[in-house]
Amino acid sequence: SKFGLRGLAEALQQEVIADDIHVSLIFPPDTETPGLEEENKRRPRLTSIIAASSGAMKADEVAKKALDGIKSGSFIVPCNSEGFLLSIATAGLSPQRSVLMAFVEVVAAGLIRFVALCFQWNWYGSIEKWHAQGKRSGN
């Protein structure tokens, strides 16, 4: 669903840029809200293991970062370091209004790809451990 939203945002930005309308896509981590507390009660254990790698942020922090990003006209608005790395790793054909960030994306792409692979390998390791524990316990 997140990938679909990104594709929709990129397509929408292309359609409305001539009207000086700027689309922003927020990359929030888990956000400390009553909704997250309820989700955590029912969320699959594996999802919790993967989500724990980026931690959670307070709602007011996420809101401030989101509003600041929207006000600045940023297409991608990361809320934490993982979101920032994700935005660079997946830049592709996304709009970029900052020459400095465009430069960072180009120069850092290879290194960020390596870091992203490390995250992915860590997630896969966690998934494999979780499945192995389930098989041993008969679940």
From TrEMBL:
It comes from the Eukaryota. This is 3-dehydrosphinganine reductase. InterPro entries: NAD(P)-bd_dom_sf. Coiled coil: none annotated. Gene3D superfamilies: NAD(P)-binding Rossmann-like Domain.
